[in-house]
Amino acid sequence: MNLGQAIKLCRTRRGVSQADLARQAECSVSYLSMLENNKRDPTLSTMTKIAQALRVPVGILFFLGAEGGDLDGIDKTLQGELARTALELLNEPASNQRALI
Amino acid sequence: MKYETLRNTIATLEKLRDAHYSQLDAGALAELNDVLQQLRNMLEGSERRELEHGELVFRALRITDIVIRTVSNLTDWMK
Description:
The complex is a heterodimer.
Chain A: H1 3-14, H2 18-24, H3 29-36, H4 44-54, H5 58-65, H6 76-90
Helix pairs in contact in A: 1-5, 2-3
Chain B: H1 3-20, H2 26-43, H3 50-71, H4 74-77
């Protein structure tokens, strides 16, 4: 899993700065930076807060962090198409609904 | 929503449904079909309300999350 890349991808697609995301996810900018650079492993609680701040379901955040053979049960080609679609949707204006686990 | 995004989203969600419909419970399948129908309505221009647009994008992401978690081992990675 490359969760750091997934966080950074979603954050940039949403047009949110590290400072704004850190504030909304109730963590420090330096910690968020370490997460994005895979220098720390986030807890599920932290990932959930980040997902809520970015208005993306937390599972999508994990899905976008999946690498090579991480996921079983879903065709690799479909997996790639779903990831591209999710990223395209993240470029769209977010609703006011909060993401849920 | 951009036309290409809308078209790609519909095509991808249809592929996801067709590949895994037998693994989904009735609630998830109904939500997936409803999201698909609303996206098609938007593509045909019959759904233009901006407030509902944002909500529909979120619903498309959420049902994608639900289906992926159901059919794959993603949940194991979230522990």
